[in-house]
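Sample entry was shown:
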Amino acid sequence: MTYIGIIGGSGLYDIMSETRTLEIKTPYGETSDKIEIGKIKGVEVAFLPRHGKKHTVPPHKVNYKANIWAFKSIGVERVIGLNAVGSLKEDYHPGDIVIPDQFIDFTKRRELTFYDGPEVYHISMADPFCSDISSKSYITGKKLGYNTHQKGSYICIEGPRFSTRSESKMFKQFGDIIGMTLVPEINLAYELSMCYGMIATVTDYDAWSETAVEAIDVMEIMKKSEEKVSNMLNNLIPEINDQRNCNCSLRLENAKI
């Protein structure tokens, strides 16, 4: 059995049918929560809330290794990450959907790889997101009439605090959106030959703008955007439920030292 894996997004509990839970033991400790197995439009999916069902796990404490390893162990080949992000650009508005194509890692103390030795791999990440998932996600968003951006560079910071104004102005020079959870989730997925695509929801303008970011405002926009993300998944999942039409499974080729 293979599944499409989805990480994040509490609203998903409302659109999955025929659900059951799995508790997976991993060599890396406990996952963020139990994995929910169910169907979306008849397609088998595995869902894991990145921060736990009650949002008790902060971004810098997510056990990314355990989460990704658990997905791989049950047969997940493709992962869709659902992320809330801040905007670093005037034309990326709160409520918009972004399908990022690049990222810059500003995290500081996370476990970034499964290959800590004696096996050593240097995987290629020049084009870090799955081209197939990304293109179909963008087409889906546009068909649904959502303000969807086809590209964007995601700045990943350590968290859990938001940026200072000076930091935000610096990040604004290099990125389009900013968040705390992409890295190392995406790295680890590729190290296990999985695909990784993202649907990012803009929740606020980052601190470069006149209004400072407040968690309560972010949560309000996230709640309003749950229906958009659920609608996108309802339409997207059947579209990617076929053979992998990308090169993500080849990332370990020629990467071993």
Remarks:
- The chain has five helices and eleven strands.
- The chain has a mean pLDDT of 93.
